[in-house]
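Q: Structure for this?
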Amino acid sequence: MLNLNTTTKTALLVCAGLILSACSSVPLDEPKVKIEDRSTGTSSGNQTQVTQTAVTDPLNDPNSPLAVRSIYFDYDSFVVKAEFNATISAHAKYLSANPGRKIVLEGNADERGSREYNLALGQKRAEAVRKALSALGVTEGQMEAISFGKEKPRAQGNDEAAWKENRRADINYK
Amino acid sequence: MAKKLSAALFGILLLLPVWAGAQLRIEISGVGKVQIPIAVASFQGEAGVPQEISAIIRADLEGSGLFKLVDTGSSATSLNETTPVNHAEWKNRGADTLVSGSITKLSDGRYDVRFRLLDNVKESNLGSLSYAATPALLRFTAHQISDFIYQKLVGEAGVFSTRMAYVAKQGKRYELLVTDIDGHNPQAAVLSNEPIISPAWSPDSRKLAYVSFQTGKPVIYVRTLSTKEVIPVASFKGSNSAPAWSPDGKQLAVVLSRSGLQQIYLIDADGSNLRRLTTSNGIDTNPTFSPDGRHLYFTSDRGGSPQVYRVAPSGGEPERVTFSGDYNVRPAISPDGNMLAYVARRDGRYRIAVLDLSNRNERVLTNSANDDSPSFAPNGRFILYETKNGRADTLAIVSLDGTLHKTLPSVNATDTRDPVWGPFFKY
């Protein structure tokens, strides 16, 4: 889900660059590629290279383990389950290899219970993921653990399926 | 009195009259057992006046659950604050007490509002007052008259002229609002496309602390209502939440996750002088000061389940306060410091409970499933809280004796939530 979001965001950025260049009124022989470069964050190259960079960054590869950005938790639990070990290590490895990259760990809680306490529960989930990444060598400066509590539910229902979806910490690359 | 009133009116004027979308409508589902019979005659000259003073007074008194309105009948149409009345006749109609008055437009555009409160049983005049009010302040004047009547007949301060703050949510639009306690007269304080939670009144009622997700994470701000000035008070790494004012208004207790899990810190109201107060391996949140400033009540899961504890603001070993059940959070303390209200999970339902701190007697006041955010009226008689109406968050009031239950359903916002009752005006 979040993987899709990020892919979409990247696609939008590329599109925005294309639209910007398409809309600009500069003469046709001006180096339009520079505008596109800035919008995608690459330092050099032409349109072809931009596309290549977007694909070769494993963060943007939907088949990479990095595509998993959500860690789910059991009811009233704040333990990162073994099934997410591969995800955690993939992100730890990527962040260690790319010390310039930063993430925000966003904890969430289901809707049951008091607002501020649920904010604390979401923080506990984000913190659990932060600790797991830290243990694998990710530096503190690359991570910030925050909580949305029950204020930004991804699933809107009031049944177990929705609650399960909302007991979650997301890894959000900045 | 007049000076005090005009100062309070001036305070209200400082709130710029921003139109705000959310309006509330009151529904009463329970009333007090002992009610004072009262007749409130229409004020002479009130036809055509922007606010129907007598109707506001009637709604205030009836809405408190402590009064029973008696029909004034057709004979009262010409009553004002000086008309001689036949006490026995009114008493026979069931009106132990009678309010009458008049409204006259002054040459400067203000209204001269006068009233008299009569005791028909003792055949005595309990008092009369007059106010000069601008059209915008007529509602406030009516609430002040209700407070006067309440004070004379119930024997404690009325809270009809107090205000509340709450968050109205409509789609992705969040609005922090300040309204009269009857839900009228909304003033928009903060508007955002990201969640706003945890509003808290400064003790002088001039400022609101709150948490906004505007920057992508919870950050604590303080807004001065008159100037609209907003300052970020706590924007540390991690989450910044649950602000609470000290009784002198000079500092805030805040909840920060900068060291890992959420812990309680104290910070000066300008955002300086941060110091950590609690240290646990779990969650410490929901700080609230006792009115005398000697204790800070808060929620902690240090004992395994979330319970209310208290600690001296100077530090020391926290003392556990709640013991029944496995979930007691979000404490609020009564103005006299004797009663503690909190959200108690009982049989899987989140309800509002009160604990008498003198005898440890706990009572669960509400019977709903998703209650939150209790706060006491400044006279200690009522608790304002958040409940559910179907899937929508709704405001509600319950009296401490459990006899009055009323909901304040929102008319045109999907959700109204996180209410907090404002203090008496202190000017």
